């Protein structure tokens, strides 16, 4: 229970309540505690009493409370009330899991596990990425308004490391824990020497038969095992490849993505109970070909006002026309993921079904950095 609460603490923004332990006598500026009861033991007993009191509610009443809170909190920051309800005790958590719908159905991100669930089908989910060049870190935020950038809701963070001839990225829930061996890591990514091929790894097994990385470098990216029923490690979930431009022809980068997405989209919102998806299929994406604008003398794509600065990093990913897949996205006009520059260190990231926020973020990270062989 304590582990589950700590994993969600960064998603709440509420003031802490101080409680005077039983047996404490406060006078002036001092507090004396009875020697018969240790403060730690007394605090633990009080927590158990509070938890038992809240868990006594009738299941119907409890579900109705969570349902009303969920309906009232349409977006962040009011949506933190839903997470606060799930943090009360185990029964409240189960009620929240049964009420809150995944992003595919409701178009909202609620729990950390929502970041690995497919995005909405009808409209893209708007996010943005901020880059810190000084320490090679990247921060993913959920847009809260129609503005290109606002304060945003923090979702994920990543940091780039140089390891020998390779470049590696750590992706984490915690913006302050971005080091090898991080206990809050949700995945990682590794590139080749030229920075043209990237392999994306998930820290938890996303589906049956996922390929487990067995190498010395995998031990540098430890992941805390949330549940004994969910195996932890480094499981390959996708590849991103940039095509070489040997002739140095004019044009933007050309990229190809193969991402493993679960066919069965039913997923639990509670990571401690989440089970690997039974089957998966490879989703093939490629960047949408831009057109040459004679008047502007540059390559152009229609980002519908979401990108304002021309950059070689900008791209739109679509599924090749005529491809058969279980998601029904074989349409070159439907943009699955778009990424573009709006400021010197700010970029928009819009994604939709069947990609998750984690997958979209990892793909966008591959665009950072110079690729001499591709430009």
UniProtKB/TrEMBL annotation:
Descriptive protein name: Tubby-like F-box protein
Species of the source: Brachypodium distachyon (Purple false brome)
Xref: PANTHER family: TUBBY-LIKE F-BOX PROTEIN 7, TUBBY-RELATED
Gene3D superfamilies: 1.20.1280.50, Tubby Protein, Chain A (3.20.90.10)
Sequence similarity: Belongs to the TUB family.
Region (Disordered): 25-49, 265-285
The organism's place on the tree of life at top rank: Eukaryota
Lineage: Eukaryota, Viridiplantae, Streptophyta, Embryophyta, Tracheophyta
Domain spans labelled Tubby C-terminal: 115-370
């Amino acid at each position: 229970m304590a582990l589950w609460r700590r994993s969600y603490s960064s998603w709440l923004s509420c003031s802490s309540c101080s409680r005077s332990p039983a047996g404490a006598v406060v006078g002036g500026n001092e507090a004396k505690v009875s020697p018969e009861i240790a403060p730690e033991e007394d605090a633990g007993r009080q927590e158990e009493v509070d938890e038992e009191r809240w868990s006594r509610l009738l299941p119907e009443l409890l579900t109705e409370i969570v349902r009303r809170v969920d309906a009232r909190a349409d977006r962040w920051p009011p949506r933190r009330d839903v997470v606060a309800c799930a943090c009360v005790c185990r029964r409240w958590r189960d009620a929240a899991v049964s009420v809150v719908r995944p992003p595919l159905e409701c178009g909202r991100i609620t729990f950390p596990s929502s970041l690995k669930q497919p995005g909405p089908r009808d409209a893209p989910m708007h996010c943005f990425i901020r880059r810190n060049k000084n320490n090679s870190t990247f921060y993913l935020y959920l847009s809260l308004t129609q503005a290109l950038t606002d304060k945003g809701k923090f979702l994920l963070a990543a940091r780039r490391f140089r390891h020998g001839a390779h470049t590696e990225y750590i992706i984490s829930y915690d913006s302050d824990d971005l080091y090898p061996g991080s206990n809050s890591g949700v995945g990682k990514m590794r590139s080749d020497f030229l920075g043209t091929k990237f392999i994306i790894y998930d820290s938890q097994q996303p589906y049956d038969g996922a390929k487990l990385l067995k190498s010395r470098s995998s031990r540098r990216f430890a992941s805390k095992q949330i549940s004994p029923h969910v195996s932890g490690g480094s499981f390959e979930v996708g590849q991103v490849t940039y095509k070489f431009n040997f002739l140095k022809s004019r044009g933007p980068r050309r990229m190809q993505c193969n991402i493993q997405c679960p066919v069965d989209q039913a997923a639990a919102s509670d990571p401690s109970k989440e089970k690997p998806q039974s089957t998966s299929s490879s989703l093939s994406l490629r960047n949408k070909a831009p057109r040459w604008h004679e008047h502007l003398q540059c390559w152009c794509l229609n980002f519908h006002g979401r990108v304002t600065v021309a950059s070689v990093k900008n791209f739109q990913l679509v599924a090749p026309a005529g491809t058969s897949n279980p998601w029904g996205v074989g349409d070159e006009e439907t943009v699955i993921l778009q990424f573009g520059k709006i400021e010197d260190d700010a970029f928009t990231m819009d994604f939709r079904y069947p990609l998750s926020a984690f997958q979209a973020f990892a793909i966008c990270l591959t665009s950072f950095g110079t690729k001499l062989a591709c430009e």
